[in-house]
Amino acid sequence: MEPTLLFTDDDRLKNRPVSKKDIDEKALHALVQSAVNVELFTIPLYMTSLYSLKGMHEINSKGSNFYEGRTWPGMAASAHPKTANENAFNAVFSVFVAEMLHLQIISNIANVVGYEPKFTCEPLQDEKTFAWKCYSPDSSVLPGILDFKDTVKNKNVKVKLGPMDADQCQLFLAIEQTEKDAMKDFEPDRKHIYEEVAPYDNWQEGQPLPPFGSIGNMYKQIWNYLSIRYTDGVTLWDIVFKKGLEKAKEKSTKSGSNELIRTALQREVFNPDRLNPDYATKKPEDWPNDEYPLMPTSIEHTETVKAQYDVLNMINGITDQGEGGGVIEEILLRVSKSRMLQTPLTLKSVKDQFRPSCPVLRNKYPSYNATGGQVDSAKAEARGHFGGMDHFETFKYVQKLVQSGEIETWDQWHAKGNKWTAELLQTAAYNPDLYPKLPKSDEIAQALNNLKLNDAEGKNYELFSRASTGAIAGVTRVLNDYFQNPATAFPYPSMGGSGDRMSICWAIFGKIPNIALGVTPEGAPPIDRKNHIYHACQGLNLDESFREDPASCAQVGMFHTCKGSNECKGEGGCGFVHSAGSGGSGCGGSTAKNPPPFSPPSDNACGALGGCAVPISASQMYPDLPEGTAYEMQMYNFGPAPAYTPEALATFNYAKGDLIYDVAWATYAEVMKKRGVTVGDKPKPSDIRIALPPST
Fold first, then answer.
1. Omega of the bond leading into 199 within 30 degrees of 0 (cis)
2. Geometric angle at alpha carbon 124, from 244 and 320, rounded to 5°
3. 260 within some domain
4. Which residues, at least 6 apart from 684, have a Cβ–Cβ distance to it below 8 Å?
5. How many domains does the chain have?
6. What is the pLDDT, as a whole number, of residue 588?
7. Distance in Å from the first CA to the final CA of the chain
8. Of the residues 327, 358, 389, which one is the last residue of a structural domain?
């Protein structure tokens, strides 16, 4: 029997007045944006506590021994965790990645109902400065969901950023609790606030939605709207899905994409094989790149009925991974029995259906040792091990580790009076003569200490906090376009880069990275790329309208961690090579697909070129290139505002192992020479640049 559209026997849903169609569509759009907000809200929150865990990490990549014997502050996933910190990091890391998956899923659902999801908006962020407004030591509100003051057990929970401690574990458990547990915990005189059931007859566009009480209930209310049938026999799903397809076709045409509707409307970070036109004709094992081979993570069908089942399965996946039981069984109980028998769902536990595939993860995310050789994949082991536990179970596990007293966070380490030493930043294999251009470990230790000791007014802490905000904004700004433009690549390294910025702030100051601060200081002029060309690092200023100290670094508003968030000419940073004429795809290494001449750091002719990670780490070096590839940079001068038209100059030759900043300075000097300006001596690396780890 062919499946048919799902709707319930509830009279409010199956005999809805036709006059409600327009407001119902708007309410559905508000609901999916609320879900986007909730999934996005958890990511900086969990990430801040994740990187509070004290630990070090090596920086290694395939075939490179640049940083052999060196370590940098900040934990990373462990293939074979032994300590409480390592186990806690692996556990929360698995949840952090799953929340990114949930964000992808709900964003795909938003697109399929004809709504463009937003990732830099109220109530989470200030839309101009990207400051996160939703976390505060005084806040008790989980945006759109509930006020913990209305509960009994969780009355004192605060929605704040913090280290991995008992308070944060309680907050995380309160967020991930099941709908049933959440409803049991409300004060009797407050419970009614959270019991309003969709469709919301009194809601008007622009008003807040009724609070849901739990994440699970939020998804139930989304499904209520998706199962509405009007008195004329038309369903809301019919209406919104048709509009979603039309928008997708329009976007495909504008982007020049000839791909199927799935790729125009749906994006896949975790299961990229699903976008293959032949996906439905083969078995899951035929697709080696799908991390969740049994879990739907995007709409796989263009037929109205099958696509609705896709959405139901996707809601099943989110709620089952998060709170364990999910809400899918209650949804199905409200579907008429004749239709329930036709529902092609596999209701299994998170331990199998929604668990990531370890073999796929090991293949996609290899790990390397200090000499560039491949070793057990730490990310795969972390996600594979904890992928069988729902988020509530995972945080219960972490809570026990915290209660054991074995966890140590950076704020605790600093409270004991610890300071950085060379020995903390090196292993037995450390050899300062291996690459003598690199800062020595004692110089890095001194820079780390200086940034805290010389910060009586808190300016350094403020800068690193704003840098953390900017690193996250580098992801969210791209997401605004990623889910609308089939040609936009996902900024993979930006996620790791934002973790680096958070962990270095924790490690230097022993304080929470204050992402409630925007990317630019209060009262500072807003970023104005129409009238200025901003520079990437110390003294590399190509805009003569800026009169600065030659040794000054890039404005904090320019700090970023990936080329995907390098928005304009002159902002290229760490120097991963990309052809001067095109940025290639992704960020994080040299490839044969990018022929020379390459785009120089801080002298790139357009956005997304010249590399990433501003400011430039004093330890950043140029990698090896495929045999036969010329180590050649194309230099540019720039015309006046507002176009800043690039003028190609001569090419510049460099070599493997050259420091990125040295190449940036040399090209800058040549450009200024073309202008008839003599530059002074190259600035010595600032403490900030010495402290920042290199990108990989």
1. yes
2. 65
3. yes
4. 551
5. 2
6. 42
7. 53
8. 358
Among 358, 381, 406, the domain-final residue is 358
Note the pLDDT of residue 422: 98
Residue 17, judged by CB atoms within 10 A of its CB (0-12, 13-18, 19+), counts as exposed
Task: Give the DSSP letter of residue 206.
Answer: T
Does the residue 366 lie in any domain? no
CA–CA separation, 169 vs 400, rounded Å?
9
Rounded Cα distance, 400 and 406, in Å: 10
Phi, psi (deg, nearest 5) at residue 537: -165, -175
- What's the token pair of residue 659? 């420091």
Question: What is the model's pLDDT at position 342?
Answer: 42
Host domain of residue 339: 232-358
Report the relative pairing of strands 56-57 and 632-638 from DSSP bridges: unpaired
pLDDT of amino acid 549: 62
The predicted structure's pLDDT at residue 476: 92
Whose tokens are 């209310």? That residue is 221
β-bridge pairing 374-375 and 72-73: unpaired
456, burial (CB in 10 Å: exposed 0-12, middle 13-18, buried 19+): exposed
pTM of this structure: 0.91
Residue 246 domain-assigned (yes or no) = yes
Q: Answer for the pair 211, 146: CB distance below 8 angstroms, yes or no.
A: yes
Which pLDDT score is estimated for 224? 92
Helices (H), 63-185: 84-112, 166-176, 179-184
- Give me the residues of the chain with pLDDT under 50, please: 1-2, 260, 336-349, 351, 583-592
Residues 510, 420: contact at Cβ < 8 Å? Answer: no
The H-assigned helical ranges of 334-421 are 337-340, 358-364, 378-386, 391-403, 410-415
pLDDT at position 589: 43
Q: Give the type of residue at 54.
A: K
CA angle 657, 661, 662 (to 5 degrees): 70
Amino acid (one-letter) located at 289: N
Residue range 143-152, pLDDT digits in tens? 999 999 999 9
CA distance 623 to 630: 13
Q: How far is CA 379 from the centre of its chain?
A: 16
What angle (nearest 5°) sits at the alpha carbon of residue 551, between those of residues 548 and 556? Answer: 70
CB 463, CB 524: distance < 8 Å: no
pLDDT (0 to 100) of residue 584: 37
- Which amino acid makes up residue 38? V
